Amino acid sequence: MSSPLHAPTVAGDDRVVHAREVTKKFGGVTALDSVSLDVHRSELLVLLGLSGSGKSTFLRCLNGLHPPTSGSIEVRGTRVDLAGGRDIRALRRDVGFIFQHFNLVGRLSCLENVLIGGLGRLSVPRYGALTYPRSMRAEALAHLDRVGLADFAARRADTLSGGQQQRVGIARTLMQRPKLLLADEPVASLDPENAGVVMDLLFQVCVEEKLTVVCTLHQIDLAMGWAHRIVGLRGGRKVLDRPAVGLSRDEVMGIYQRVDPLSLPASTPARGPL
Ligand SMILES: Nc1ncnc2c1ncn2[C@@H]1O[C@H](COP(=O)(O)OP(=O)(O)OP(=O)(O)O)[C@@H](O)[C@H]1O
């Protein structure tokens, strides 16, 4: 799967995420250090950085799982850092989450897993695909078709490959009709070909559905291939924020320098990019 050479440099103008000087501390650990970031409609933003640089923490701050220690976060006009339980629950209906390990219910069919994404729209829980309204079943099937898995609707989710399971995970999230999609290392468990397929799907839904996607990755090439914008975190601080088009690999690798060589004494050998 090759990356989209047509990747637009400019995404939508509407601001979906507006984070200002967000700091998050866990005891003595500063996971995020005064991070400011706007993300727009139809924008696929990739967060890169070493393990522990604060990528997942930032995603969790966006959907209210982690309250920031200081700073403000607005998602679609809701101040997440000030919101109470009811507002956070309402916000989460608009925010889809894609997990590294898919989080499907293995013993359920792919169709029912996708239908679960629409549960927030129903007043009572459902058990079994046939208990959902016919219109929702049709919608779920359309999402499975979109991710290329319509023929797998009746298959148990745990009989699918990792790449297929992640595609079902994306279909389930689309069933939620989200406005913001957060993806935490969505391709970390996949081989390169399937990783490309999943990134391509995220790119397509971002552009075609005018969705905002914030995705953490460890693969620079995938980030450069599919992101509209790349943001680098190092030690909880934002060290890069640029459109992917025009960005060189060396500039992206700079995110991974543990220590700024200019800050080292002359006698200390600088460590290069990992
Ligand atoms: N719930 C928590 N309690 C205590 N410390 C935490 C918690 N969550 C994250 N941290 C710490 O915050 C820092 C940032 O972690 P985070 O998971 O955001 O990094 P990351 O960039 O997503 O890493 P990875 O790429 O390995 O997923 C780390 O030092 C981590 O140990």
UniProtKB/TrEMBL annotation:
Query: Which Gene3D superfamilies did the record assign?
Result: P-loop containing nucleotide triphosphate hydrolases (3.40.50.300)
Q: One GO MF term, please?
A: ATP binding
Keywords assigned: ATP-binding, Cell membrane, Hydrolase, Membrane, Nucleotide-binding, Translocase, Transport
Q: Name one Pfam family in it.
A: ABC_tran
Instruction: Show where the ABC transporter domain sits.
Output: 17-260
EC code(s) of this entry: 3.6.3.27
Q: Name one GO cellular component term.
A: membrane
The protein's matches in SMART domains, at most eight in alphabetical order, are given as:
AAA (SM00382)
InterPro entries in alphabetical order: AAA+_ATPase, ABC_transporter-like_ATP-bd, ABC_transporter-like_CS, ABC_transpr_PhnC, MetN_ABC_transporter-like, P-loop_NTPase
Q: Which PANTHER family match?
A: AMINO ACID IMPORT ATP-BINDING PROTEIN, PHOSPHONATES IMPORT ATP-BINDING PROTEIN PHNC
**Cited NCBIfam families:** ABC_phnC
Supply the name of the protein.
Answer: Phosphate-import ATP-binding protein PhnC
- From what organism does this protein derive? Gordonia insulae
